[in-house]
Amino acid sequence: MVCEHLEACTSGELLKLIINIPPRCMKSLLTSVFWFSWSWIKDPSSRWLCSSYAQSLSTRDSKKCRDLITSPWYQRRWGDRFCLAGDQNQKTRFENDKHGFRVATSVDGTATGEGGSHLVVDDPLKASDARSRTAIQSVIDWWDGTMSTRGNDPKRTRVVIVMQRLHEKDLTGHLLSKELGFEHLCLPGEYESSRSFATSIGTDWRTTDGELLWPERFGIKEIESLK
């Protein structure tokens, strides 16, 4: 389901997407690593600004992207599509010979002067700050005043925000309350028919209340323990 929505963003069918999903369900790998590496196969000229609440997390995923792209597996299949630029090949920023790039930044960092065709925000609020009004407002101010303005072409910029819900007034709540055209893909750990969400791409595949999102990883015992 997540991959289908990300593919729709790549094709331009979706431009603004919010994904809410529990932690440890591959959200960072899917949105910040695999989607990017797959998209450069399609369009290596795309330019990406990727952020999280901490620079260390953004840098971690940027390195995973670069490691995947330079792996023998990837190079055997798509190595003819583009080459990484030797003079701009760092953990926090790397470019290719088709003028595409990936920049890793953070909420407490800066994106001033940078622009992208894809803006990706992965967990902008730290879980331990969920009760901090100051921290929540800081994230909103960063989005409204900085990150949201970094799209190169407002008519075609892809914006994806993926996060666990931590507060009703977190960044997801803030953006949905303003009705800015975001599609909302919400996949709770346990299905609730009374709170089921649908997008233009599809609906939650689960139909029974209490049905688990990823039972092979988080079964009934693990969910009850987390509760």
Commentary on this structure:
The chain is of the alpha/beta class and 227 residues long. 33% of the residues lie in helices and 19% in strands. The chain has helices at residues 2-11, 27-42, 55-69, 72-78, 133-145, 171-177, 220-226, and strands spanning 16-20, 47-52, 84-89, 93-96, 101-106, 118-122, 158-163, 183-186. The protein has an 8-stranded mixed beta sheet with strand order 3-4-5-2-6-7-1-8, with helices on one face. The longest helix is centred in the N-terminal third of the chain and has 16 residues, at 27-42. It is globular and about 50 Å long. The mean pLDDT is 93.
Chain-wise SSE layout:
Elements: H1 2-11, E1 16-20, H2 27-42, E2 47-52, H3 55-69, H4 72-78, E3 84-89, E4 93-96, E5 101-106, E6 118-122, H5 133-145, E7 158-163, H6 171-177, E8 183-186, H7 220-226
Parallel strand pairs: 1-7, 1-8, 2-5, 2-6, 6-7
Antiparallel strand pairs: 3-4, 4-5
Summarize the structure.
By secondary structure, this protein is α/β, with parallel strands linked by helices.
Oligomeric form of this entry?
A: single chain
Strand order of the largest sheet: 3-4-5-2-6-7-1-8
- Cα separation of the termini: 25 Å
SSE class: alpha/beta
Low-confidence segments: none
Query: Can you write the helix and strand succession as a string?
Result: HEHEHHEEEEHEHEH
Kindly estimate the percentage of residues that lie in beta strands according to DSSP: 15-25%
The DSSP helix count reads 7
Main pleated sheet: 8 strands, mixed
Work out the helicity level. Answer: 25-40%
- How much is the radius of gyration in Å? 18 Å
Please tell me the overall pLDDT.
93
Tally of strands: 8
What overall form do the CA principal axes indicate?
Answer: globular
